[in-house]
Structures are given as structure tokens and as C-alpha cells.
Amino acid sequence: MAYVxxxxxxxxxxxxxxxxxxxxxxxxxxxxxxxxxxxCGSCADVxxxxxxHPE
Length: 55
Known about the structure:
This protein is mainly beta. The chain has one helix spanning 42-46; strands spanning 3-5, 24-25, 31-32, 52-54. Strands 1-4 form a two-stranded antiparallel ribbon. A two-stranded antiparallel ribbon has the order 2-3. The longest helix has 5 residues, at 42-46. The N and C termini lie close together (6 Å).
């Protein structure tokens, strides 16, 4: 089960450096590639607006 980023994302970039498998891509709302995501939760732990949740 991959993590997803909600519309609450502020595109701050905090999560992208935390992903050990580089599954997160930038944009106005960041996106997580579910085929690459290993469900580690590192991104969710550092998100300042709590926009990242398990799918």
C-alpha cells in the first residue's frame, strides 16, 4: 500500500529529500509513484501540513 499526497500539499519540498527510493516528484502538488513507494512512511513523518497518508 503506497502513501498518497492530498490537496493540502503546499509543495514545500520537505518530503522529497526523505524518500529513500525517490518515489516523490515535485509539482504544484507533489505526487508519489505507487509502483516505487515502499510504504516506509518517512515522507509522512516530515510533512509539516500532514498532507501525506497511507492510501
